[in-house]
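Researcher: Let's run the pair from yesterday's discussion. Sequence first, then tokens, for each.
Model: Starting with the first of the pair.
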Amino acid sequence: PMAYDPTATLAPPPRAVPVKKNSSGCWPALAGLLLTVGIAGGLWWWLDPLSQLSGDGSEVVSPGGSDASNPNLSEAERDRKQALRDRAVALSVDWAYISRLTDQLFYEQNPDRQGTQLTDQPQDEPLRAKWDAIAADNLDLIEANLSTDARSKLGRYNPADSDRWKRQVNALYVSSKALYDLADARFNQLFPGRASEGFVETPVDQIWFALAQDQVSAMESGENLTEITFAEGTFNQQQQGNLNPGQGQIYVLNLSAEQLLRLNLQAPPESTRLSLYVPVLTDELPHLLADAEQNTWAGELPQSGYYEIVVVSQSENVIPYRLTVAVDNVINDIINQPDPPEKNN
């Protein structure tokens, strides 16, 4: 039946009119009433598909609905479904989003079920158990990889968030390309192969947005962003650490056009990707390196401003790395050094 809507506008009551008495009694009136009820009932059945049963007379199971109290399911299954909902609440994740995400992955794994719905009948119990298992895995993944703030917005991310993140990272002299490198690396580690397919509006894509949100927060706290500066008389610096699977680090340094820059990244073979972005990205010069498997670069810099070095892991294991950055001369006159151009990309 249709849900009650407290905001609905009520129609005014019918105006009372005198009833003309008829010697034939109440039977014609009763017949008319029954006919009206019958027509209304038929229209209600046609207009409200949710009131219909599946083809075999069983009730269609709606994972995002109230099936945790469905009396046709066993007590153990009802408890399992309720536990999933309770866990989503505890993680601050919208259950309607979890249902859509689980539906997407369930039907990808069971393409023969596309276009069909699960019922509450015994023959669908194994598939209902599989759906619940996928939902549990989704909650595991979200809990392990997203902050409370990021996961609380799942299902509500949109392009306006990307625009906001761009302004936030540009203020740190980081481009959106560098941000996307970090988000792509995390996403590809969780969902191998999907990052190269392009993004459409699906529940899985919402996780990419949530990962990007966490990367922006990490930049603002300095967790994954470091500015490299050179002390007087020094011309090189080393940065080192460990990278978890899918993790990345960004290094920014303010350099001048025509300076010579040399990069050397030491890490296990084929375990990293290296990018080097220019201060002002153009169609002719969008980068000096982008997602490259090579671990060295040397050359004369074409622009003045903040360069971005991005190192991301594509390994399934924790890896150590050491990045050496060297320049041919260092400008120590901070007072007279020109301001770097603003980032707007």
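Model: Moving on to the second of the pair.
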Amino acid sequence: MLPGRNLKAYIARFRHASAPELAYRAGLALRIRKLRATVSAGRRFVEIPALDAAEIRGMQLPAFILDTDESAIGEILGGRVFTLGEEQQAVERFERETKDKYFADVRSGPTSPDIRTVWEPARLQHITTLLLYARANPGLDGFDAVRDFARKGLLEWLRKHPFLKGPHYMSPMECGLRIPVFFYALRLLDNLTPEERQEILEALYLHAWWVSRNLSLHSSLGNHTICECVGLVFAGGVFKSAPEGRSWLSKSIELLRQEINHQILDDGGPAEQSLGYHRFVLDLYRLAVGFLERNALWDCRELKPRLELGEAFLATFRDDAGNAPDIGDCDGGHAVAPGIRPERFVER
């Protein structure tokens, strides 16, 4: 999360921060302050490189394993989104109250929902569910209706939440998790107009631009960093013909290589002492590996032994039905969507 969200936590962190970290965080705060007037005035401040649509059509999605059914699709078509148990109306009310504010000026009040429950539906994983289910079931009754719902839902979200306004740009991690959804839409929706395709492409670029300048580094390194890097992997692959895109790809791969030995301990266990977060982090890595290798962007073989170590550790806690106990903190998040996971190299 960016500076200004939890003052006490940042004061405690600053007491033990190195000079490079202090300089990095000061730069973040200065950038956020300088952008306020630009965003409020509606001025364009990021130039987005042109991209040939054929480049995206030739790209491959990672492999996924779906454990969802038509009843779940029906619930989404009926208006359900994932809110971590919070009432959907409370989330939507908070969004309406804050949608026109510069993201750094958004504040929660005593009656506001937990901010994590506001962010959860904005991961757009209900859109992912529709897109991937339709792709796996081309003969689905109502196939076109499902895709059209996904298209309309995504475009509506983008128009309701313009860049850097409202609560959904407070966390670079959340921005990173949305980027793959934009890619899935660009790759799978052939019912987009050229203008709609450009709108989604610009959102993808802007999200990556923001994430790359607000990475969770230094004492903030952790699963947030992994989420951000996964987003940059996808954005870097899409914009690999542009210098900024190549920079995103290079930086995200560098951090994923660096962090895998921190996130997965030598015995395969989780650095965060949580089985739920361990599954989350492992699936994030699987998502990145699948995208990178399927699009010949980087050979990920050096990551795989550590990932297998992590899978083996988790397997020791599973019962015969494949269930594991809730050990440690967990917010119930998913790397892709509930009921959908990236293909794992060894299924246990």
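Researcher: Give me one sentence on the second I can quote.
Model: Strands lie at 64-66, 340-342.
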